[in-house]
Amino acid sequence: MISTRFRVCALLMMALPLALPARGGEPPSPQGGGGRAPAAAQTAFVEVAKLRLPRVSRPPQLKEFLNGTPREAEAVVTGFRQREPGDGMPVSQATAAYLSYDDRNLYVVFVCEDAGGARGHMAKREELNDDDLVGVYLDTFNDRRHAYGFEANPLGLQRDGLFNEGQKTDYTFDAVWTTDGRLTAKGYIVSMAIPFKSLRFTNGDVQTWGIALRRKILRTNEEAYWPFITQRVSGFINQMAALEEMNHVAPGRNVQITPYGTFTGSRHLDGSIAAFRTQTEQSGGVDSKVVIKDALTLDVTANPDFSQVESDEPQVTVNQRYEVKFPEKRPFFMENAGYFQTPVNLFYSRRIIEPQVGARLTGKVNQWALGALVMDDRAPGALVATSDPRHGDRAGAGVFRLQREFGSQSSAGVLVTSRDFGSSSNRVAGFDTRLKLTRNWYFTGQMMDSDTELAGKRFSGQAYLARFDYSGRHFSHSTSYTDLGPSFRSDMGYVRRVNLRAVSEYAGYLWYPKSRGLLLSFGPSMSVSGDWDHQNLLQDWNLYPSFVLNFPRQTQVKVAQSRSYELFDAIGFRTNISELSVYSSLAKSFGVSSSFTTGQAVNYAPASAIAPFLGQSRSASIGWTWRPAERLRIDNYYFYTHLGESAGGVPVAAAGRQTV
């Protein structure tokens, strides 16, 4: 049962956002100018920038910009300012954006000059990390918390994503939109047409959205925006401009039904019976998507097809103390995954291995964000022995998420997960909140309670998290406390260990030289952490100082050292590891990354009859990317890991090489 203490605390904290106004005052974004960061960016803020677009009867064409042909109408945006490396300085290369719209699409055309030569390659969709790019970001609910991002390189290669304040950018989002790009003698031109039916927004004859425009110049490590998005204020979406008075636009009806079928047949010689055998296999299913009230999306799947899912990236899984976490790559689970994210991960979708039927509802209505998922899983019944009465049974999984936004960049929400298989079950309920305290300080908190029935026994457990974060241009800091009870269990989540009380501190500082020379920024950082079990026995501590130097062409050099203590299998180990890493995009056609570590590491899985021991460890990796032609890319990686003998002469425990 959910504990009484948890219920009381959760009800009190949930009452807070309901008692506060839905929207609060938001510090507007600075719009200063000049060769150095404007005074407004340092001490005060001016009004939020505003933009109004003309409505056109025909879309703008890229050739019109190439040939200098007059267009019907457009709003022209200039005045891009750097966020990196010179916060508030004008963009180093002339940049202009031309915007308009009609009944179906929003149009944005970027005209970018570049005397040093723009970087743009043909590659797989969304592989833009090694290219210059331009982007447009749309806060369609005007809530200063969520936004769509549409980016393209100079050749028109696309990348799109969902931006949620307080979370990592979700680039698994894929929308239908069109781009075109051309390199020119002076730089490049990119046009975008974003259909309104690819967006979600509220009903209304007149729309007001948030908008930001971006240009990235890889050669100079430059990030420039309109309006000015400063690092001196935490957050990105809250600093967007206001896109006003877009009249009579609507996403329209959006229903997608995608059936599939696979059929195979084979005839082969069966040596056991000295005859030919014929085999046939067939499978089919359907995925469907329905948009409800222009805001909610219902996805239903039957026997989903995961045969074309991208394979996992290589990871070292040998001699790992904890479960290795692989990212989700199945489209059904990736889309709108941000709705289910919480500080402690209570829903890790790869726990559902082989579903047959499922449904998911996600969306946003006013200040409420909603996510719900129900699905079965055939894998647990297939993995147990055939003699087990549960063989062939299915597990049932369910997730429910509700979040309320309030005040200025603050939110609170609940998440409930459920999993049943045979007579076993696991229920988890959690409450989490993110509070904006000042323009740079945030508080994140989470309370969780689990109720589990396993092998005829029933038990419950609690867990808590509290974290303060500070983010600024020069200084960043984080301090956190986590408490995971011995009986806490989350079968649908990713929680590496329980019976733990942990504290951690991080602080980092970056200097930006006034002279724009070879060195762009540099500075130290320090991480300190320690944890104890609920019997107050020290389990681990770690001290991790590092120093980084950032140069042009996306070049970084980092040196670090890790000193730590770890209690494993009732044995205490102290380790000391030194680290060096370098990466750089040296030229348009070539980039390289490398790392090297040396020190001591624990052998968690030695040979039988040998206790875990501390051995000499070395690891190295090197990778490079070569683009000999516009449409050809060659990637090479080499990994080396070695764990040698201990001081007592125990034989080598693990050594391995992997080349991809």
Radius of gyration: 27 Å
Beta-strand content estimate: over 45%
CATH fold field value of the domain at 31-247: Immunoglobulin-like
CATH hierarchy: architecture of the domain at 31-247:
Sandwich
Give a quick account of the main beta sheet: strands, pairing sense, barrel closure: 20 strands, antiparallel
Low-confidence stretches: 5-46, 647-660
Average predicted local confidence, pLDDT? 84
Please characterize this protein's 3D structure.
This protein is mainly beta. It has five helices and 33 strands. The strands form three sheets. It has a 20-stranded antiparallel sheet. Strands 1, 3, 6, 7, 8, 11, 12 and 13 form an eight-stranded mixed sheet that branches. It starts with a helix and ends with a strand. The relative contact order is 0.09.
SSE diagram, text form:
Layout: H1 4-19, H2 39-43, E1 50-52, H3 62-67, E2 75-77, E3 81-84, E4 95-101, E5 105-113, E6 133-139, E7 146-152, E8 158-164, E9 178-183, E10 187-195, E11 206-217, E12 222-226, E13 241-247, E14 255-270, E15 275-292, E16 296-302, H4 331-334, E17 357-365, E18 368-377, H5 379-383, E19 395-406, E20 410-421, E21 424-436, E22 441-454, E23 457-471, E24 475-484, E25 500-509, E26 521-532, E27 538-551, E28 555-568, E29 571-587, E30 590-603, E31 613-629, E32 632-643, E33 654-659
Parallel strand pairs: 1-13
Antiparallel strand pairs: 2-4, 3-12, 4-5, 5-10, 6-7, 6-11, 7-8, 9-10, 11-12, 11-13, 14-15, 15-16, 16-17, 17-18, 18-19, 19-20, 20-21, 21-22, 22-23, 23-24, 24-25, 25-26, 26-27, 27-28, 28-29, 29-30, 30-31, 31-32, 32-33
